[in-house]
Amino acid sequence: MSDPYRAASEFLAALDDDWRRHVAAIGPCLHQPKPARDPYEALVRAIAYQQLHARAGDAIVGRLLGLYPSSPFPAPTQLLATEFDALRGCGFSARKIATIQGIAQATLDGVVPDYPTALAMDDEALIERLVSLHGVGRWTVEMLLIYSLERPDILPADDFGVREGYRRLKGLEVQPTRKQMIEVGRAWSPFRTVAAWYLWRVPSPALNQK
Fold it and tell me: What is the pLDDT of residue 209?
């Protein structure tokens, strides 16, 4: 079985001893993009996971899908027609409800592009277009770029897991700032998406002691 990320892993492992040890410990990159998801679905899912652990996000999305048993994912019109209390029952906050319904409306209005249009757009152009939506920040669009559009060189510098992973990797006292993360990450181009995947998997010292 071929390893589509082998070149990226080897590139990162050659950066320094910390990266070499970490890549060797984790093994091949098993990043799994979801290219079948259009930008609308990807954005709604990303909002569900914002500031939550994966298990909590999974539960919210599962309950959301349960509201629409005849659809693999609710269409924008279905989401807009869903009562506030039903969405609250899924675990969405009032702010997230406003955001996902805003994404649904923006999709109908043509602001959120379809998959082929998004695929043809420049990273920064797509980010600029989508962060204009209420409640949609750069991180949310970066998750769309990484998972749905399979962009290979995205570093979500605001992401807690990325910053904490780098802090642990380098044994730093404090996390780097977003600006520092961007500067450090320049050396990881053109494989910053795979770098983020590895940083999300840096073990904590507590786990190392067990």
Answer: 41
Are 142 and 87 within one domain?
yes
Q: Is residue 91 part of a domain?
A: yes
| pLDDT given for residue 53 in this prediction | 81
- Domain range enclosing 106: 39-148
Q: Catalytic one among 3, 16, 58, 159?
A: 159
Identify the CA nearest to 133 among candidates 90, 76, 74: 76
DSSP structure string for 85-151:
HHHHHHT--HHHHHHHHHHHHHHHTTSS--HHHHHHS-HHHHHHHHTTSTT--HHHHHHIIIIIS--
Q: Computed from CA positions of residues 38, 121, 142, 169, in that sequence, does the dihedral angle turn out positive or negative?
A: positive
Q: How far is CA 119 from the centre of its chain?
A: 16
Average pLDDT along the chain, 210 residues, taken 10 residues at a time: 87 98 97 89 92 88 96 96 97 97 97 95 96 94 94 95 96 96 98 97 64
What global pTM score does this model have? 0.86
85 is a catalytic site residue: no
Domain end position, chosen among 124, 148, 172: 148
Q: Which pLDDT score is estimated for 2?
A: 67
Amino acid at 165: G
Element housing 166 (H / E): helix 160-170
List C-alpha distances in Å: 5 to 158, 183, 192, 202.
Answer: 24, 23, 12, 18
CA distance 6 to 29: 7
